[in-house]
């Protein structure tokens, strides 16, 4: 769901009139999000001034689409800023921008390839590298959006740290983050011109398809073949996920119930009992794979993070790109309260 959705001309005017933060706040409340606290309101007020400087360019057509606060389906995550349109060759793109107000950051540890330490909300915190954040959002959309899957629209992730001091840039360009900033470049305070040039490489005019953001926001969601194949290869290549004895019987019974749910559209809950080590989790991962292979949206959910992290590590062999692709399949129940009713098939 997109909170703010206007063309470039209206966005620029809203910023010039100093009403952009108020508009976003009103829309976010109208759409039922529990957001818009003082710190977030200030970030909209400040960051959108900088984004206006980037898009208020004569080379970018007034009808190019601007979206702010796009709630990624099936998650509580929101993309800060989207610019949608086509390039000079009429190829369609959506530029995903992760906005940060940081002034500096530092490497946490050589073994922590996703994280940086920075000063947020009056405290030093360990958070995601902004390039990783933008890239992970683009991967989720690539794995689930039918429009993206069909190759009709290209996704371009990036990050803009408009307050970031050049003296601390080396922390974010450390070699341990190379995978992320290579896939999703970031730009800092003194790189506004470079960022503007980057944006204009992908979006300068309105798409001939019309409202690209509508296609993304209202298009059908289902797991891609590449995501299905990725998880299948991980599960089938790991001997511990082979089903034994009663596990196989339970697997058949669960699939039978799944098919019945599809036929009569009724909801069912299956409870499987067994002590530690009897293979309940092995069964669950196999069901996850099979349901995903049916093109249906599903997730493995546990309150305890330990089994989720263990399976991620086992399945991906700690390959960072594999982790990004399947991480969202292993979820905590706490974020699911914000998922729309019937957002999951199983």
How many domains in all? 2
Strand content: 15-25%
Q: Could you estimate the helical fraction of the residues in percent?
A: 40-55%
Which spans have pLDDT < 50 for at least 5 consecutive residues? none
| Radius of gyration (Å) | 22 Å
Q: Count every beta strand, where a strand is a DSSP E run of 2 or more residues.
A: 11
| Principal-axes shape call | globular
Give average pLDDT, whole number. 89
Mind describing the biggest β-sheet? Answer: 6 strands, mixed
Alpha plus pi helix count: 14
What is the terminal-to-terminal distance? 21 Å
One letter per element, helices H and strands E, the order comes to: EHHHEEEEEEHHEHHEHHHHHEHHE
Q: Structural class, from helix and strand content?
A: alpha/beta
Largest sheet: spatial strand order: 1-2-3-4-8-9
Could you walk me through the main structural features you see in this protein, from its secondary elements to its overall organization?
The longest helix is centred in the last third of the chain and has 19 residues, at about 245-265. The chain folds into 2 domains: about 1-220, no CATH class; about 225-340, no CATH class. The model has no long low-confidence stretch (mean pLDDT about 90). The chain is globular and about 65 Å long. The strands form 3 sheets. A 6-stranded mixed sheet has the order 1-2-3-4-8-9, sandwiched between helices. The chain has helices at about 10-15, 20-30, 40-55, 130-145, 145-150, 170, 180-185, 190-200, 210-220, 225-235, 245-265, 280-295, 305-315, 320-325, and strands spanning about 1-5, 65-70, 80-85, 90-100, 105, 115-120, 125-130, 155-160, 185-190, 300, 330. Helix 11 runs parallel beside helix 12 (about 280-295). Helices cover about 45% and strands about 20% of the residues. It contains 14 helices and 11 strands. By secondary structure, it is α/β, with parallel strands linked by helices. A hairpin with a 6-residue loop joins strand 2 and strand 3.
């Amino acid at each position: 769901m997109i909170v703010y959705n206007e063309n470039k001309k209206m966005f620029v005017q809203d910023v010039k009139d100093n009403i952009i933060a108020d508009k976003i706040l009103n829309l976010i409340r109208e759409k039922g999000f529990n957001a818009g606290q003082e710190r977030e309101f200030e970030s909209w007020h400040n960051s959108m001034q900088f984004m206006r400087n980037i898009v208020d360019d004569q080379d970018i057509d007034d009808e190019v689409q601007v979206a702010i606060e796009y709630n990624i389906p099936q998650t509580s995550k929101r993309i800060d800023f989207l610019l949608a349109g086509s390039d000079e060759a009429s190829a369609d793109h959506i530029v995903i921008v992760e906005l940060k107000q940081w002034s500096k950051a530092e490497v946490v540890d050589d073994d922590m390839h996703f994280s940086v330490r920075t000063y947020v909300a009056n405290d030093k915190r360990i958070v995601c590298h902004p390039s990783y954040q933008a890239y992970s959002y683009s991967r989720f959309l690539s794995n689930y959006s039918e429009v993206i899957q069909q190759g009709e629209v290209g996704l371009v992730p990036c990050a803009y740290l408009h307050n970031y001091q050049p003296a601390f840039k080396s922390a974010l360009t450390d070699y341990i983050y190379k995978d992320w900033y290579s896939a999703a470049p970031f730009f800092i305070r003194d790189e506004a011109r470079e960022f503007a040039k980057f944006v204009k490489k992908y979006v300068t005019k309105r798409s001939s398809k019309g409202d690209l953001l509508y296609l993304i926001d209202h298009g059908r969601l289902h797991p891609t073949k590449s995501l299905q194949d990725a998880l299948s290869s991980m599960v089938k290549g790991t001997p511990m996920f082979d089903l034994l004895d009663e596990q196989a019987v339970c697997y058949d019974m669960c699939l039978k119930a799944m098919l019945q749910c599809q036929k009569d559209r009724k909801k069912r809950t299956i409870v499987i009992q067994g002590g530690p080590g009897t293979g309940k989790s092995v069964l669950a991962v196999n069901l996850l794979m099979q349901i995903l292979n049916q093109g249906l949206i599903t997730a493995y959910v546990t309150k305890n993070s330990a089994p989720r992290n263990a399976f991620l590590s086992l399945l991906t062999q700690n390959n960072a790109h594999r982790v990004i692709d399947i991480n969202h399949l292993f979820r905590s129940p706490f974020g699911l309260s914000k998922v729309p009713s019937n957002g999951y098939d199983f």
